[in-house]
């Protein structure tokens, strides 16, 4: 089973009603290899350029401006065989911190952190993600995701028609 992450959800279903698992996430283990997401725990071979991160931040700023900074912006992961949405990335946290819903404002903050990290050559920020299984409404935790990987997947989801010119990491 392979997963395709080139989708974006601007679903407002969780906007009006807080999801209970935000307080104490009850998660099931998720084998990333089984669902074709093992590459998520690896820093991308090609990082987004400063210009691409800037384009992404502009798009997120526009979403926040027109729909509100609390508007949910969630990457959906579809099963390539069935083309149905399998998972929706709903929340993130930095190690040891509280969960945050992935809104336009939070995503803009994450992209800004990645942009600043690239300029200063700081250490890679590692985050945890919470995936909601759309089939049975359970949640799955995936840990140790590099912020550069999340931004890369977010770019592909939000700006799918943009050309992908990358800086190869040496």
Verbal overview:
- The protein has helices spanning 13-16, 50-67, 104-120, 147-158, and strands at 3-9, 27-28, 46-48, 74-79, 85-94, 100-101, 126-133, 139-146, 166-168.
- The chain is of the alpha+beta class and 170 residues long.
- It has one domain (3-10, 25-160).
- Strands 1, 2, 4, 5, 6, 7 and 8 form a seven-stranded mixed beta sheet that branches. Strands 3-9 form a two-stranded antiparallel sheet.
- A hairpin with a 5-residue loop joins β4 (74-79) and β5 (85-94).
- The longest helix has 18 residues, at 50-67.
- The protein is globular, with a radius of gyration of 15 Å.
Topology (SSEs and partners):
Layout: E1 3-9, H1 13-16, E2 27-28, E3 46-48, H2 50-67, E4 74-79, E5 85-94, E6 100-101, H3 104-120, E7 126-133, E8 139-146, H4 147-158, E9 166-168
Parallel strand pairs: 2-8
Antiparallel strand pairs: 1-4, 3-9, 4-5, 5-6, 5-7, 7-8
